[in-house]
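Hello,

Our lab assistant flagged a job as stuck in the queue for most of the afternoon. It eventually completed. Since we weren't sure the result was trustworthy after the delay, we are filing this so someone can double-check. Below is the sequence as submitted and the structure that was eventually returned. Let us know if re-running is recommended.
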Amino acid sequence: KCHGKSYIVPSGVEELDCKSFDYSKLEEITIPEGVKNMDSAFTSCEELTYVKIPASVENCDGAFYRCYKLECVDVDAANEYYTSVDGVLYDKAMKKLLYYPHAKEDEEYEMPSGIEEIDTACECFGSRKVKKITVNDGITVIPESAFANSWKLEQVILPDSVTTIGKFAFAFSTIKEIEIPDGVTSIEENTFNACYKLERVVLPRNLQSIGKSAFSGCIELWNIIIPDGTDIIGYKSFNTCTKLANITIPESVSLIKDGAFSECDNLYSVTILGTSTAIEDRAFATGVNIYCHEK
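-- returned structure --
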């Protein structure tokens, strides 16, 4: 176990065990040629600022999870598996974004053309600095927790190619606005949970369901247009969205689940356009005026 602020890995070592450095106060590390595996090696090394990956490394999956002061990851040009551009880690073919350093100073990031995939490792983008991210055309999946806990993030521009957004993808971030592409048919559970600065969301025209707690705790969200074609509004999906004042539920909605609009303290008017929409107990806060009529 490492307890100092700097460490030189001895020559001859081929693997950095995932328990060797986690939660240490390590600030600097020298990794020699010969090391092949760095899987989860530096988890929660919250003081680490810089890492250079040698040519010999074949696996560094999840190596920098919760390295909140890491500014740059460099890769030896001879490495056959990884590369870096401006301190951001990619696979060698530049098809997959692997890690954007938490403390990288840039306020804007535009994903390079050719990137087809964002790594599924938790908080691949848990940046503490970046405010605007442009995802390149060709990306189809935003993985679970991809942008979670991004404390300065204000805007993410998604391309039309995106069809899936994973659970917790933007949860606990400071995102302010987003337009979700029409190819997305489901807002998964907790996707925008506790995005307390989120003001504006454009939902996709082909939306079918809004999952559990999808927008729970979005206290600045003052308006939401639920598109016709939506079938289910999930459990506590808009819970504690305290600035929502009125909602129109389209005819297509068959079920509004328990707590969907609970604790929305300023919600005073709900118009339900369908005649067969099922409403579970406590779906709305007490005192809300509910108007039901045919479209």
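-- support follow-up --
The delay was a queue issue, not a problem with the job. The result is valid. Residues 26 and 92 are 27 Å apart (CA to CA). The mean pLDDT is 93.
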